[in-house]
Every structure is written in structure tokens, then in C-alpha cells.
Amino acid sequence: MEEPEYADLTCTACGRTAEHELRHVGRLLATTTCTACGHVVEVVPRSMLTGYLHDLEHRVTSKPVRMVRRARRDPLRFARELPGALLRQPGKLLDELGTLLRGR
Amino acid sequence: MTGQPTPPRAALVLLAAGTGSRTGHRTNKVFLPLAGRRVFVWTLDATAHDPGIGPVVLVVRADEVEAAQAVLAREAPGRDVRVVVGGASRHASEWSAVQELLPSIEQGEVDVVLIHDAARPLSGPRLFRDVADAARRHGGAVPGRRQPGLLHRDGLAVRAGEAVGVQTPQGFTARELVGAYRAAAEAGFEGSDTAASIERFAPQVRICNVPGSSTNIKITYAEDLFLAEALLARSSFDVRRLGPGAAGGS
């Protein structure tokens, strides 16, 4: 599970525009929690699997273009960070899949 | 070089200053990730291949200029986007953007200004074209969708076709827009949206209604993010497949 993000959104339960905690699995939104009333909107992890795989396919196919873009923007930083990023990818993907299969 | 003059284009103003909190660690909702991109970047994607859309002005809060530039460098490299600081109200932010565009308008490079809420990421390319074309023909254009089934406060139903839910982008001929905003500044008037200032200070401009799009949702509720994500997935993350003229988008 990625680090949460926070944003002001309107809550359908309490009607207030309040800070919401947003948690993602990969690029997909998994849960939102209204910090004012605790109302949670979530996608059942297993039901996210199809969408996750569709998104993963898009992530993988668009990766070369994104890598070239990053390399052009800052070649030194790209070269410096590439080994670490490559090493982190399998663990990151396993963690995402694990979250979907085990539940949160 | 053919020597042909370049036809004037529509400028796009993306309003991102008026949403979210100004304190703490919260993210302005237009900077939230949505299917791999920040919310406002999907609009840049939708308009990227339209030669009729020219300069883009992104209006953000003063403390978000750096973040905006970093997102643009990462997610919209090569796109010419001017980042300007907005004001305390929507009207003030629009005025900041119009002032940024003044030289292009006065030189005749920009003939129409499209003002769009950056929290509406799924308008699709066609709506921008439709609004720009209608604004050129009539002076102003606002997309809207009929809202059936609405009730008055006293419980009586609004007759079908009477109520229209207004969307953005709203488009206006550039010179009339500048005139109206200058007059509004002199009068100390702050309109609730672009059309309000035009109606008051450029009454000669006819504002026509352009059919809006069912996918043109505004990220307001938490659930809107799930919906936007699902709509993007359905279009294979190609925002050009959304909006009027796209399957299921009208």
C-alpha cells in the first residue's frame, strides 16, 4: 500500500468538505476516509484485481516512453536512480498483489 | 516559409487555485494522482493534439507554483504552459490569467479564451473544440446538460428541460472578455463565474449553450475519484476517447 495522500473533498455521509485520507494500490485508488466523520469508501480488494491487472498492463507498456522522457530530462539523475528503481520494482509489485489478494 | 499568417487560436486557462486547503499537508485535489497522472494533467492531454488551442495558462496558488512546474516537467514535458499565481477568488484568478494573455490577445494571436476548471479532468478534446467554435460564432459559449427530475424547494418538480447543469470550459471572444474584466475591475465587481462578468459588462455578447458531456465530472466527492478512474480505465487511459462524440460520453 502506498503512503496516504490527503485532500479536501466533500463527504457524502456528513456533507462537510473536509480532509480525506486517500490510499492507493499501485495507481488505483483503494480507500478514502473522511477525517471529520470517519466515513470510508473502499473497493473490495479482490474486486480490484481485474482493474489492477488492466492498469498494470498499461503501466508496463507505457514504461519505456516514460523512462526515455525521464532520461532526457535529467540523464545523470536517471542513471543514478535506475539501479535502485529496478531492484525495488519486484518487491513493489509483490506488495501490491499481496494487498489485493490478502485484503488490507 | 509560406508567408501565410497563422490563424488565431483559442487560449486555455486552467483554474487550479481555488480548490483545496491552503494549510497543512493536504494536497490540492487537482494535484491528486488519478490513474497515474495528476488530475489537471488529463486536461492537458485532451487538448495536446488540437492545433486550434494555443497558449495554456495554469492558475495556481503562490505556494504551489513549484509543485505545478515539477508536475509539468514530469507529466507534460514540451507542453508550453505558463504558470501564474491566482487570486483569492475565482474571479481574481481569471483576471490574473487574462492579464497574462493580454499581449497575445492584443497581437491577434488569441481570439478566444477557454476557461476551464482543473478539477474536471475528463472533458475530452471535442468539448474544447465545440466551445471554441461556438464562442467564435456567438461571442460566448457555456456547456451544459439538462437536469431532469429536479425539485423546487417547495417540492414542485422543475419542468423537464428547464434546468441546466453548467460545466466548463466556458469560452468567450478574447477582446470582449478583456473589456468585461477591465470594467469589472473598475467597478469592483466579482462574478461567481466567467459568464457572470460577461453578462454584466458585455451584455452585447450572446452566450450560447453547447451540449456538455456526462463524463465531464467535477472532482468534488471522494466517490468522484473512483468514478473518474473507472471512466479512464474504460477508455484505456486515452482521454481523447471521452467527452461528446465519444462512445457513452455525450
Automatic annotation (TrEMBL), chain A:
It comes from the Bacteria. This is Bh protein.
TrEMBL record, chain B:
CDD domains: CDP-ME_synthetase (cd02516). Keywords: Nucleotidyltransferase, Transferase. Transmembrane segments: none annotated. Pfam families: IspD. One of its GO terms (biological process) is isoprenoid biosynthetic process. The keyword Transport does not apply. The keyword Transferase applies. GO terms for molecular function: 2-C-methyl-D-erythritol 4-phosphate cytidylyltransferase activity. This is 2-C-methyl-D-erythritol 4-phosphate cytidylyltransferase. It comes from Klenkia soli.
